[in-house]
Structure formats: C-alpha cells, structure tokens
Amino acid sequence: MTMMRTFYIKAAAAAFSALVPVLSSGQDNVQRDTVRTTTEFRLPSDSDSLALYLDSVEVKKKIVINDYSMLGIQYGMSLSQVMWNPSMRQKSMFMPYNFGIFYTRYGKMFGYMPYFGFQAGIVYAKEGYSFEADEETGVWPDLGGPYTGVRQAVMDVLEVPVLAHMHVDFWKMKLIANIGFFVGYRFNIQRTGEGLSPEVANGFIDTDKRLDYGIKGGAGFAFIFDPVEIHFTAMYKYSMGTLHQPDYYSNYYYRYSYPSNIIFSVGLHFQLTKRMGSTRHQLRREAKEQAGLIRSLDENMPGMEGTKTEQQ
Predict the structure, then answer these.
(1) Which residue in 56, 61, 183, 302 has its CB near the most CB atoms, within 10 A?
(2) Residues 56 and 106 in one domain
C-alpha cells in the first residue's frame, strides 16, 4: 500500500506541475471570475495530506471481460421430425438423448468489443420421425419403394457443430446466442411398421444417405459462478442432408426428407483461464510500467526523494 500511495502522490504532483504553466499563460480576455476560481484551487502541500485527499477520491472501475476459454459438458432433450416434400402427415418425437462436449473461446472484436467468440464440440444424439394416421380415413402415410410400411424411425447421430458465439455479461449472468453449421454421420437406425424386412427394420440400405450437414442456431442465458458457468439454451437444427436418395421411389417423382430438431439443453462449463480482471501477463506488464514511471518521477522531481519507499 505504501508503494501505491507514493505512486499516486508523485503522479498527482507531476500532473499539477504540468498544469500550472498552462493556467499562468491564459489570455487577457478570459473572465476574471474564471481565473479566480482556477487559481484558488490548491493541492495539499505535504505528502500525508495529499495521500488523504487521494484516498477520498472515488474511482469507478469498469469491469473488463478477458479473452478467456471454457470446456463444458451438455445434456439436452429434443423435439424431432422431418420436413417432407411432398408433405407427409406426422407428429413430433420427444428424444431425451442429446449429449455433448464443447470448447468455447471468447475474444474481442477489433480489440475492444468483448461480445464475441466461437464454440465447437462433438454431440451424440437421437432423432427421427413418426407418421400419423389420417383422422377421418385411418390411412397411414406411405413412403413407398423399399420403405413401404414404415411408420416410425429412430436414428443415432454423431455431429460436430462449429458456432459463432455471442454474449452480453451483466451481474452474475449473461445472455448468449449461437449460430453456425454442423456436419454429422448417421450410424444406426431402427424402423418400425408393418411388413418390414429385417434389413429395413434394423439397418441402413443402399438408398439411405448417412452423411448429415446443415445449420444450427439458438439463444439462451447463463448463471456465472466463477470459475463455473451454467448455460441454458434453446437451439434449432435444420439438416440439409436428405435421409434418402430423392429418386428412390421414382425416376420421375422425387421425394425429399430433411430432419429438423428443436433442442433444449443445459450445460456445465468450466473456465480454463481468468474471466475478469488482469491476467498474469497483464499484471506483469502493469508492474513494469508502474516501476518505470516511479523511477522517472524520482529522477525528474528531486524534492520528493523523502517519499521513496524502502524495499521489503
């Protein structure tokens, strides 16, 4: 504390010394009351009084968000269906299987806007579709071709999302938003229905497409308990990778099938580096700058030698 108080005293004295010549060179047309008000201001002359004055000044510090990173785990549940073209009568499927590991890296855009970052991870999930019979006729939709009789399908999917991650921090919370793309792979499928062959019911066939890709985005909020954060998010995932070859049914009438999911998740993220304040690198740099400024003041202000601090 003694060293910091000495630094503030010398900085204030240096600032005052630089200010006096400016005030003394004022123009003749400056109003007399303004000159009187300025020249009547005096800093305390002795070190103890000046220290007491500086201690009484309230300085508001702006909370600075560092460029920090996190590693977290996520669990979610989804509502899954397929966008059919031509359309098919269906209902959403509730899937309580969505597990992921994510790495998040925050950074400042243009060096001073601490709202941006990116997020990447690996996710295991289940998704699928379920047809629904017509209420009036009782007739079920039919995919035709090798999928005749299928009424429901559940797939295991492994995906890798890469998302732009935006955040606004306040108090012990933050608002977050994500948008980006993903690539995935469908590695297992179970179909149910009437008259299905074992090959169709328990696995992929030649007309299935297993590579998945698309867009993903959403928003949410988080509670911050440094060094842990709890994130709650709602995401929408739209696949651009169709489930089947479009011409599996006919060479003249194509049928497209794009999965879509609404995912609600909660994540537990651990900060790998310091979130707020100065990092170790910044602290070392600030210490060097302060030491250099104190040496400069000692050299340029011979009347202040008596305030030098003793080495601890």
Answers:
(1) 183
(2) no
Q: How many CB atoms lie within 10 A of CB 161?
A: 23
With a CB cutoff of 8 Å and minimum separation 6, the contacts of 105 are 67, 69, 117, 118, 119
* 121 Cβ contact partners less than 8 Å away, ≥ 6 residues apart: 74, 100, 101, 102, 103, 160, 161
- Please check whether residues 80 and 161 belong to one and the same domain: yes
**pLDDT over 70 at 278, yes or no:** no
Residue 267's pLDDT is 97
Residue carrying structure tokens 């608002």: 175
Query: Is the pLDDT assigned to residue 244 strictly greater than 80?
Result: yes
312: in domain? no
Instruction: Give the range of the structural domain holding residue 169, as residue numbers without chain letter.
Output: 69-271
Could you tell me the two tokens for 203? Answer: 């696995």
Bond prior to 86 in cis (omega within 30° of 0): yes
* 3 state SS of 146: helix
Residues 124 and 216 grouped into a single domain: yes
Integer Cα distance of 256 and 144 in angstroms? 13
Residue 28: what pLDDT?
43
140 and 51 in a common domain: no
Rounded CA gap, 232 and 234, in Å?
A: 7
Q: Please state, in angstroms and rounded to a whole number, the distance separating the CA atoms of residues 72 and 78.
A: 19
Domains in the chain, number: 2
b or e along 236-245 (b: 16 or more beta carbons within 10 Å of the residue's beta carbon)? ebebebbbbe
Residue 311 lies in a domain: no
Residue 145's CATH number = 2.40.160.20
Q: Is the pLDDT of residue 247 over 80?
A: yes
Q: 16-20, 49-53, 99-103: which has the minimum mean pLDDT?
A: 16-20
